[in-house]
Amino acid sequence: NPFAHAQFVMSCASLDQCPTDALSELAFAGRSNSGKSSALNAICNQKALARVSKTPGRTQLINLFELPGQAGPAGRMVDLPGYGYAQVPEKIRKDWARMVGRFVEQRPNLQGIVLIMDCRHPLTDFDQQMLAWIQLGERRCHVLLTKSDKLGFGAGKTALLTVQKKIREMGIEVQSQLFSSHSGQGVEEARDALARLLAL
Ligand code: GDP
């Protein structure tokens, strides 16, 4: 598992605070409660790598994790702040959109986005906004439809087809799969896809 030794490096409040090196990055994006932290932890096989502040309405940070390689770091995982609490003040919502939008559209290091959606509620407004930024930035994207243990086989397949259809219509280069950090479904498949995006 190329992600097993991921370690936290730093938090940044904006794109301008992120390191200016040439290290390839993969960014995790998802609505609050979509299962993003659990997915990151499952992929890296670590219990508490992503411990995002869950305080609604608080300004959140971009968290960076490094993947150690043979001679220095091999890549970076970026945990973008989640969004979607109902009672978020307008100011925080705008700050979030500016920070995440700029990161996805402009970050030179970014090799791909891992977009996390709860398979029971895919393509929320948040997800559509992310897909629009991904489209603008001409980014590659891998979608994880999380909590697949909550759906039966047929419903999971339907969720996957719905998302794939939408993405095809947008003309983005995206792959998607079912994923469960609880049952382990799709964890290996996700590691393989992410390693390819990062050219590990
Ligand atoms: P985040 O806010 O997107 O980082 O979401 P978390 O990873 O903290 O998960 C939000 C909630 O969903 C928690 O109660 C998790 O236990 C639950 N959850 C996360 N992944 C799964 C999964 O694969 N299956 C099930 N059934 N629940 C999950």
TrEMBL record:
Domain of life (superkingdom): Bacteria
Lineage: Bacteria, Pseudomonadati, Pseudomonadota, Gammaproteobacteria, Nevskiales
Gene Ontology cellular-component annotations: cytosol
First and last residues shown, out of full length: 37 to 236 of 248
Similarity comment: family membership: Belongs to the TRAFAC class TrmE-Era-EngA-EngB-Septin-like GTPase superfamily. EngB GTPase family.
Gene Ontology MF term list: GTP binding; metal ion binding
Organism of origin: Panacagrimonas perspica
GO biological process terms, semicolon-separated: division septum assembly
UniProt keyword Metal-binding, yes or no: yes
Entry cofactors: Mg(2+)
Role description: Necessary for normal cell division and for the maintenance of normal septation.
Domain EngB-type G as annotated: residue spans: 22-200
Recorded name of the encoding gene: engB
Keywords, alphabetical: Cell cycle, Cell division, GTP-binding, Magnesium, Metal-binding, Nucleotide-binding, Septation
Record's protein name: Probable GTP-binding protein EngB
